[in-house]
Design brief:
Helix content: 10-25%
Number of domains: 2
Radius of gyration: 27 Å
CATH superfamily of the largest domain: Lipoprotein YajI-like
Number of strands: 13
Mean pLDDT: 84
Oligomer: single chain
Low-confidence stretches: 261-271
Order of helices and strands: HEEEEEEEEEEEEE
Number of helices: 1
Length: 271
């Protein structure tokens, strides 16, 4: 190849590389979605949700670990009427899920629902009054989808405490009643209360077996106040020796917070 031809070929290659670099720069600026680093969506050059060293100057945390499901149990209340409970655990200390879609497969069909879970929380999914025209043998919980989200509210800033709990029963039925105290500076629109009854522990078990479940909801629980609740079973829970009361509220849902004191609430600063 002549020197003149080699020179022309070299110049041509340089020209192509320059045009390619300019074209990529234009495409990178115009065609690619820019990183926002604040919309809770992974976009642009973000390496995760609102994170990435180059895009946001923030190192991404490890991917969220899946939820752990255990202690699934079906209870026959009477003919064609059942309760179901399953325990789920979130092993992530920073990530929670404002939306968990699940389904429970029974012998007679499937029931779907949704819930939430906070970082590091152990939570019971309780279904009551599952009606069917056939006898059920078992049920299985399946987590269909989890919408992970980082919760910046410090641990312990919201504490809902069950006080003065009392479980009692007779031949005509059983009940549990207690008082929930909101030991926080936030007013909540909805607070969930789940009551799990356990038998005496045996063998290697420290908790005993779950023998009954129930749930209720408290509407409007103001800061530093308490509200009473009561759940009832239409039969005596004679095998129950203790009750575990789980009080929870959705810290991801803005509408669950009620504005108080005429000032901006702490949670509003996170959005």
């Amino acid at each position: 190849m002549e020197a003149r031809t080699q020179k022309q070929l070299f110049i041509g290659i340089i020209f192509v590389l320059i045009l390619g670099g300019i074209g990529y720069g234009i495409f990178d600026k115009l065609a690619l979605v820019e990183a926002t680093c604040s919309d809770k969506i992974q976009n642009g050059k973000e390496e995760g949700i609102d994170c990435g060293t180059l895009a946001c100057g923030v190192v991404c945390q490890e991917p969220a670990q899946p939820l752990q499901v255990s202690e699934e149990k079906l209870f026959r209340i009477d003919s064609g009427n059942y309760d179901f409970v399953a325990k789920i655990f979130n092993p992530n200390s920073s990530y929670g899920a404002p939306q968990i879609s699940y389904s429970v497969a029974f012998d007679s069909g499937t029931k779907t629902g949704s819930t939430y879970i906070l970082p590091g929380q152990t939570k019971y999914i309780v279904l009551t009054s599952v009606r069917t025209d056939r006898e059920l043998i078992g049920a299985k919980l399946k987590i269909n989808s989890v919408q992970w989200e980082k919760l910046d509210m410090p641990a312990g800033e919201v504490e809902l405490i069950n006080r003065r709990g009392n479980f009692a029963g007779s031949g005509s039925g059983s009940f549990y009643e207690g008082v929930v105290y909101n030991d926080s500076n936030y007013d909540f629109d909805r607070v969930e209360v789940s009551v799990i009854l356990f038998s005496a522990s045996g063998g290697d078990s420290t908790d005993g077996d779950i023998v009954g479940v129930n749930r209720t909801e408290i509407r409007t629980l103001l800061a530093k106040t308490e509200r009473s609740f009561r759940v009832v079973w239409p039969f005596e829970q004679s095998s129950a020796t203790r009750a575990d009361v789980q009080v929870s509220t959705n810290l991801f849902e803005n509408s669950n917070f009620i504005k108080s004191y005429g000032t901006q609430e702490r949670f509003q600063e996170f959005y």
